[in-house]
Design goal:
The chain is mainly alpha-helical and 129 residues long. It is built from 4 helices and 2 strands. It has 2 domains: 39 residues, no CATH class; 67 residues, no CATH class. It is 42% helix and 5% strand. The protein starts with a helix and ends with a strand.
């Protein structure tokens, strides 16, 4: 009914008998609706191609190592199958793997080596921002 009213308001139509106009419009609308429904049933549904990890899935160290390498390069790509990303609460990636790829386990940020300064070994790493 809204489409009927909007259509006639848009065109500034006047009718001597709105009931007859409605009946005529509705008779034209039903075949239109049926054609649209037939076209919708021919659509191909594309399924989600991503695979989900089964419940209770435990990633291997090799999977963490590969994902951490990608995360270190991109700064943002982390598989949800591996749990929260580095720096987030509940990150399951072993800290030694994160350090191997230059990521601070506490913050998830890249770490760089400070070269050429006379500092103790604890402060040789700085977090890149």
């Amino acid at each position: 009914m809204r489409k009927f009213i909007a259509n006639h308001q848009e065109k500034a139509n006047f009718s001597a008998n709105w009931n007859a106009s409605w009946s005529k419009w509705w008779e034209g609308w039903k075949p239109h609706r049926d054609r649209q429904t037939a076209q919708m049933s021919r659509r191909i549904e594309v399924s989600d191609t991503r695979t989900r990890a089964p419940i209770g899935y435990k990633p291997t160290e090799a999977e963490f190592d590969r994902a951490t390498g990608l995360f270190a390069k991109s700064g943002s790509l982390w598989s949800s199958q591996l749990g929260p990303e580095p720096g987030m609460h509940g990150c399951k990636c072993p800290p030694e793997i994160l350090r191997k790829h230059g990521i601070d386990p506490a913050t998830g940020l890249k770490v760089r080596q400070v070269i050429g300064r006379d500092v103790d070994s604890a402060s040789k790493n700085e977090i890149l921002t």
